[in-house]
Amino acid sequence: MSLLPYALARPFLFGLDPETAHELTMHSLARLQGTPLEWAYCNGMVGDPVELAGLHFPNRVGLAAGLDKNARCIDGLGALGFGFVEVGTVTPKAQPGNPKPRMFRLPRANALINRLGFNNDGLEAFLANVQRASFRKKGRILGLNIGKNAATPIENATSDYLLCLEAVYPHADYVTVNISSPNTKNLRALQGDEALDGLLGTLSARRARLAKQHSRRVPLFVKIAPDLDEAQVQVIAATLQRHEMDGVVATNTTISREAVKGQPHAEEAGGLSGAPVLEASNRVIRQLRAALGKDFPIIGVGGILSGADAVSKIEAGADVVQIYTGLIYRGPDLVAEAARALQQHRSGAPE
Ligand SMILES: Cc1cc2nc3c(=O)[nH]c(=O)nc-3n(C[C@H](O)[C@H](O)[C@H](O)COP(=O)(O)O)c2cc1C
After folding, report:
1. Residues with beta carbon inside 6 Å of ligand 1?
2. Residue 18: Cβ within 10 Å count
3. SS3 (DSSP) at 145
4. By the 8 A CB rule, do 249 and 176 touch?
5. Is-contact 337 305, C-beta < 8 A?
6. Beta bridge mates, 321
7. CA 171 to CA 31: how far, in whole Å?
8. pLDDT tens-digit map of 118-143
9. 255 exposed, middle or buried (CB, 10 Å; 0-12, 13-18, 19+)?
10. Cβ neighbours for 48, distance < 8 A, ≥ 6 positions apart
11. Among the four 21, 28, 90, 226, which has the fewest Cβ within 10 Å?
């Protein structure tokens, strides 16, 4: 357990506008990481190793993309006990994202709605931050999540992904191709049959070239939405395998408001995350596992608020899990709680 109990910090943070609270937290982490003061919040890492996509994950709980879009706090976030951290989504050029306010809490539902729209400082700043971090040297796994600029027409999306892939390739343990944010116009259309086939075919060919050039084959993961029916999931699964993708990250936020109807902010546009997305994400994971067979890596994300939720993802078919919104509601202790629950689940001990 960290020195600063989150129960004390949370009322203060929840008194602030959500994006201000986020920026303040990230700023503090960026200042503290790598200094002796890191002790104030750092957690030991629960060991629960797994080999996946040719990588050695020291435990099965990771940070989901979007919390550290600019890769400013890789070491600070790593100190919370994550076995792996995914940063981004980064786009080729810096962009401001959507107008504020664009992030909302739904505390009754342990949920958030965001329509940030890939606000980020662009590839160059991202890579400078990635290269400063010592996280990978400690045997932890770093995922770099890539996207497209809002100003790039969807017909030219592939060129943005290629630019990002080329640039991040030497610095990543794995790369996630994000085609499922609801906050960039038409992005999710890239999950459609032909569009996905074209995009993944091109990325796969470029990866083959990069693998030769760098003498290292970096795994490519694809991140998908929870708002897909079973037939769509099956086509996506077949397309991932056809193009030799190495894993799937399931899922992103949902555009559905079914679970939060009538609650304050429920009608805000954007992606809903947290507890209400757990079941929808787990359904997609189950369908993916059925379609992909037992060996294809699945990274389960969406709605983990407890150790039991993390276990539900593994039982649905995920190999490892990621957390974002749960961290806001439960604080850093959730990381160890989830990792321990998975460790005990594996050894068959009661939770
Ligand atoms: C504020 C916010 C920003 C996010 N930004 C990104 C992003 O840039 N890229 C991405 O792939 N996912 C992004 N996500 C989605 C999360 O990585 C995750 O897939 C989703 O929130 C479901 O997990 P959770 O319920 O644990 O939050 C974002 C989520 C939130 C709440």
Report:
1. 64-66, 69, 89, 103, 112, 114, 116, 118, 145, 178, 181, 223, 252-253, 273-274, 277, 301-304, 323-326
2. 19
3. strand
4. yes
5. no
6. 61, 300
7. 23
8. 999 999 999 999 999 999 988 999 99
9. middle
10. 58, 59, 60, 83, 339, 342, 343, 346
11. 28
pLDDT digits (tens, 9 = 90+) for 196-236: 999 999 999 999 999 999 999 999 999 999 999 999 999 99
β-partners of residue 223 are 178, 249
Helix 230-242 × helix 193-214 angle, to 10°: 30
Phi, psi (degrees; rounded to nearest 5) at 118: 55, 45
Q: What is the rounded CA–CA span in Å between residue 298 and residue 295? A: 9
Mutate to test the pocket of ligand 1, among 324, 327, 328, 330 (most ligand atoms within 8 A of CB): 324
* Residue 180 annotated in active site: no
Q: Which two tokens stand for residue 143?
A: 């995922």
- Nearest Cα to 168, choosing from 197, 196, 225, 207? 207
Given a contact cutoff of 8 angstroms between Cβ atoms, the answer to whether 75 and 63 are in contact is no
Determine how many CB atoms are found less than 10 A away from the CB of residue 197. 15
What type of residue sits at position 62? Answer: G
What's the predicted TM-score (pTM) here?
Answer: 0.97
Is-contact 116 92, C-beta < 8 A?
no
